[in-house]
Design goal:
- This protein is an alpha/beta fold and 484 residues long.
- The protein is 51% helix and 13% strand.
- The strands form 5 sheets. It has a 5-stranded parallel beta sheet with strand order 2-1-3-6-7, with helices on both faces. Strands 9-10-13-8-14 form a 5-stranded parallel beta sheet.
- Helix 6 packs across helix 8 and helix 20 crosses helix 21.
- The longest helix is centred in the last third of the chain and has 26 residues.
- The termini are far apart.
């Protein structure tokens, strides 16, 4: 018999699910608190669990982690209110199969979700995911972080939530946005893409919202904007950080209410488009620098996906090369020596640069050879190895960084201790923020020191620190930077 565990402190919710699932022939166990549910998780195995995010004595996400650790095959649906949707999306990263919002407006959809999860085989939905990715030209590859990112994207695609994609220029943000659109319930409706950084500020508002005839010089006829054209579909706004503050205010209104007005118009229009935004800059940093509205970021950042740069997923180079050769309809291949040189290059332009290099090499090699060898590669790739002088420069920067480390740490610790000893009122959030900044600094300092001692060998540095290379990259690239 199928066993289902329902965890919710609202007894009427538990009663509702008890009768709904009992009528389907399932064995139902109810949990009403964190502590109570911990015991129930240990008592038997379950095929499905519905867990409320907010419990009076604990966090539903922690129960999710315990459930997946104790019963890895158990499907989990997280229940959440609107204000905790972002938390529910995070739950998917910890293994939740899906989430549902309270109150349950559509009971048919709820039943369908439960039935699908219980009837679906225990194996992941990777086959469907890979077929769809191949259809839109999105190469997933073997990089673990990339595989995880695409699984998250696939799961949240059917939800009516906004998505923020961050990543360096050329990493494939638009292709990922198209993948999400195709995996969503909006796939039959338009996918409209617009680069906010490629349009002048004076024209951006008109392109977004449209304009009425005679709204400005040159407006000879009425024009629809992309917000209107993408109605019921998906609107992908690339480089959204380039939009002016005035445009950001109007975009915020669209996200909050769906309302907008054409330039020169007086009538309020309505759109039901889903917005996927992208930026090559960190928008949280842009908010801190007063270059981006915090309330707009809050609306966009319900789900954030960060695409890793190509230099961090070089194991995927052969797959990407094969994909682009197929796209170019070229019978040529790259020699092992050429691929080895390409793997040593840092690819600042990422996937876009890789495609351009492959296209150039194919053009040069066509009618000459059947295998592309190093001479057909650009000079920047053939001579991409790090020279000793460059390594010395890096070491000098490391010395400069570590010189300021000790006094900075001592100063921070002294400030925290002074607050501890003070009899005056304090702001605990400020102190905890100081501690987090100190943690960031210490992590980066130890990694930098280890890299210096291993002459830049990341694998050896990670082994020296007893951390993974992924953790090492995280500390180097994502944590805060020390300023002397």
């Amino acid at each position: 018999m199928i066993n289902v565990l329902v965890i919710d402190d609202e007894k009427e919710v538990g009663t509702f699910f008890y009768h709904l699932l009992k009528d389907k022939g399932y064995a139902v166990t109810l949990g009403h608190s964190y502590k109570d549910s911990q015991q129930k998780i240990m008592e038997r195995s379950y095929d499905l669990s519905l867990i409320d995010v907010m419990l009076p004595d604990g966090n539903g996400i922690d129960l999710l982690k315990e459930m997946k650790k104790t019963h890895p095959a158990c499907k989990v649906i997280v229940m959440t209110g609107y204000s905790t949707v972002k938390t529910a999306v995070e739950a998917i990263k910890f293994g939740a199969s899906d989430y549902i919002e309270k109150p349950f407006d559509n009971l048919d959809e709820l039943e369908e979700l439960i039935d699908q999860l219980l009837k679906r085989p225990a194996t992941p939905i990777e086959s469907d995911l890979e077929i769809l990715a191949d259809r839109v030209g999105f190469v997933i590859g073997e990089h673990l972080e990339m595989k995880h990112l695409v699984k998250i994207a696939y799961k949240i695609a059917k939800k009516n939530v906004n998505v923020l994609i961050e990543g360096e220029t050329g990493t494939g943000k638009e292709v990922l946005a198209h993948f999400i659109h195709q995996a969503s319930l909006r796939s039959e409706n338009p996918f409209i893409s617009m680069n906010c950084g490629a349009i002048s500020e004076s024209l951006l508002e008109s392109e977004l919202f449209g304009h009425e005839k005679g709204a400005f010089t040159g407006a000879l006829k009425e024009k629809k904007g992309v917000v209107e054209i993408a109605n019921k579909g998906t609107l992908f706004l690339d480089e959204i950080g380039e939009a002016s503050m005035a445009t950001q205010v109007k975009l915020l209104r669209v996200l909050e209410t769906g309302d907008y007005m054409r330039v020169g118009g007086e009538k309020i229009c309505k759109t039901h488009t889903r917005v996927i935004a992208a930026s090559h800059v960190n928008l949280a940093h842009a908010v801190a620098e007063k270059k981006f509205r915090e309330d707009l970021l809050y609306r966009l950042d319900v789900v954030k996906l960060n695409i890793p740069p190509l230099r961090e997923r070089k194991e995927d180079l052969p797959l990407l090369i094969e994909f682009f050769l197929k796209k170019l309809e070229s019978p040529l291949t790259f020699s092992n020596e050429a691929i080895e040189l390409m793997s040593q290059y840092t690819w600042p332009g990422n996937i876009r640069e890789l495609f351009n290099v492959i296209k150039r090499s194919v053009t040069l090699a066509e009618d000459e050879v059947s295998i592309i060898t190093p001479p057909f590669l650009p000079d920047k790739i053939r001579h991409s190895k790090i020279h000793p002088t460059k390594l010395l420069s890096v070491q000098k920067k490391t010395d400069q960084y570590t010189t300021h480390f000790e006094p900075y740490v001592m100063d921070k610790v002294k400030q925290i201790l002074m607050s501890w000893k003070s009899d005056q009122a304090i702001d605990l959030d400020d102190i905890l923020q100081e501690v987090r900044q100190l943690e960031d600094l210490i992590g980066k300092a130890f990694v930098t020191k280890a890299l210096k001692e291993t002459v830049g060998n990341r694998k050896e540095a990670a082994k020296m620190l007893n951390i993974t290379e992924r953790k090492l990259r995280y500390l180097l690239k994502e944590k805060g930077h020390f300023h002397s």
